[in-house]
User: Fold this.
Amino acid sequence: MTSSYKPNQGMKAAANRALEWRKKYGRGGTAVGVARARDIKNGAELSESTVKRMHSFFSRHGNNKAKHYAKKMPDGGPTAWRVAWDLWGGNAGAYWAKGIVNRLDERQEDIQMERHVINVEETEGSFIVELAKEERAEESAEEVSADYDDERDHKAMTEDMEAIEVIEADRDAEVKVEYRAMGMDKGPIDEEGRTVMIALSSEEPVERSFGNEVLEHSAEAIDLSFLASGRAPLLMDHDPKRQIGVVESVELDGESRRLRAKVRFGRNGLAAEAFSDVVDGIKANISVGYAINKMEKRDKDTYVAKSWRPVEASLVSLPADVTVGVGRSSEPSQPITVTENRSNPMTEQVIESVDVAAVQAEARKAEQRNAAQIVELGARHSKSDMAQKAISEGRSIEEFRGILLDAIKSTEGLESQSIGMTRNEVKRFSLVRAINALANPHDRRAQEEAAFEFECSRAASEQYGRTAQGVMLPSDVLRNWTRDINTSDDSNMLTEDFRGGDFIDVLRNQSSVMQAGARILNGLQSDVKIPKKATGSSAAWLATEGASTAESEPTFSQISLSPKDLGAFTEVTRRMIQQSTLDIEALIRDDLAQSIATAMDLAALAGTGTSGQPTGIKTTSGINTVSFGAAVDLIPTFAQVVQMETEVAADNALQGNLAYILPASMYGALKTVEKATGTAQFVIEPGGTMNGYKAIVSNQCVAGDLYFGNFSDLLVGMWGGLDILVDPYTNSKSGTILIRAIQSMDVAVRHPVSFCLGQDA
Assistant:
């Protein structure tokens, strides 16, 4: 059982001082540091892992103490470094954390080997070393940010933070493919056949985190079964998604102790460009990806791979070892972990799936999917011209989403409510860990594992001025609500690709009104008053020069948006929340989003405006209406559908995001109803349109109700943060836990004449 530790008075004084400084001067630290300072100030017990992180923080930045500690800024306040330092407990915290860590280290004096060595066996004068996953000290964005003077610009800070994030992300990876590169040492080039003879690897030592690594080049040591199969890929920078050719053949040069290969380049754009650069001598470095099965220790600092398997070749740019040809690529940004008798799941996936034709076909499909997503997203935000431009420029959906977000004012509020989490901190945030801790309040391990999530929640609550009833999901996390996972192996977190999509996009995919083009106002912090035109102006011709006119001025009123709490529910089992897979996390998120979207649709369409509900389109005064009369089976005629459009057009409101929203029963029936008898042309048209406009199904529509209008005049206001509450008791007998998500939001119709409601009499 791990211990916990109480901060001392000196730490409390430093943390309180830093909080006051940050409030007064607006600099120093991040949301995590602020949360840590609040814990210290309040005398909260700190876990062993937290104390170790504190010690790591102070150790890293203690060297800068003389430069920053006593320095005053032009405004008379301390440096950002000093604020960050004191947020973590200041000098008192540094001595306190160091003392605890030293005592903890003393308990481990019987451990003789380094952490990465878990077993050593002596055999015939050499040592066989079994290497475990190397642990790396946690480096938070808080630690990085403290390194900078206030004079350093934000861009430089951001770049270094991103570099650290690569290191942090690596902690979750269990096994990695090693890479080493050398000068291409080109042999004959067949430009017609697009082949090149290259030297792939040698026995030159490469410095790794555990010492110097040597790959033995003997027939007994190298498994060439896959590399010699004709299916091994030639990649660009070890990226499986950027295959530029194949390894056609391979041979071991026993005399020079090198591995040589014949590679053939493909004919796609990337491959053709790469081959041209090789022919011209621009790209001259080749790298091999390989997995090690067995290692032996030769001397104090040198380890020899006695059994290893190459799995791919890559064209790379950066050399590191100038002693071999042109050079060797630098060690990957992801630190190498050497293991014994462990297979690499990512490597196996490459071996089994590499097929040139299939890769090319998948690439074409990916391009089509990418273009379709861009078109859909652009249309959704009335930015079709921007979408077409992005497609012509070859932009990805992630790039387009970023461009679009910059162009949409509604995102400004969400950005303004950021608590300052880095990309890596967002990736680390786990809803499942938070739920597990809330469901098991007396489980110390669960509480410690969710310490980071609770810290972020406290920071978010302070930012939004709201007290979290459970755990508050910051807007930083909500902006990265969705994720694409390009591996089936959850142990390899490095293959996780976070999309630019956010919580709003998830809701939009589930909500009919948002699909129809409702305007989203994110990141609201208080009540919002929005002007609307009450009466229009009129104009008149002048009878004679200088005569008075009878025109009138327009009048304006306003509508209000105020936060109303929307609660959505889902259930999970206790076994589900004990899993740490990304699939479980995504399942819970999707269920919550579905529940919120459903409730929001109901409020936007037919909210009563009472009992805490917003006022929906149906109950808004002044909207147009069309009676279907005694319609057969509650199904309107095509003429009545057109009449709804006419009513909106008569009020000069036929513009913007125009669409119909209808219940599933009506949609299904209208697919068989002819516009005119005997024409075989049905009300629901090919492509899912009706009367030339989008027809969107919503089961939140009452049977017989049909909505039409400009949905950009439907405003959906959302206040920052998503509050997650957990009830482990109500359904305890069934072994399930009730999860409730509370989102503060409101709905309002800006111009009632923009809408028409068709109803059965």
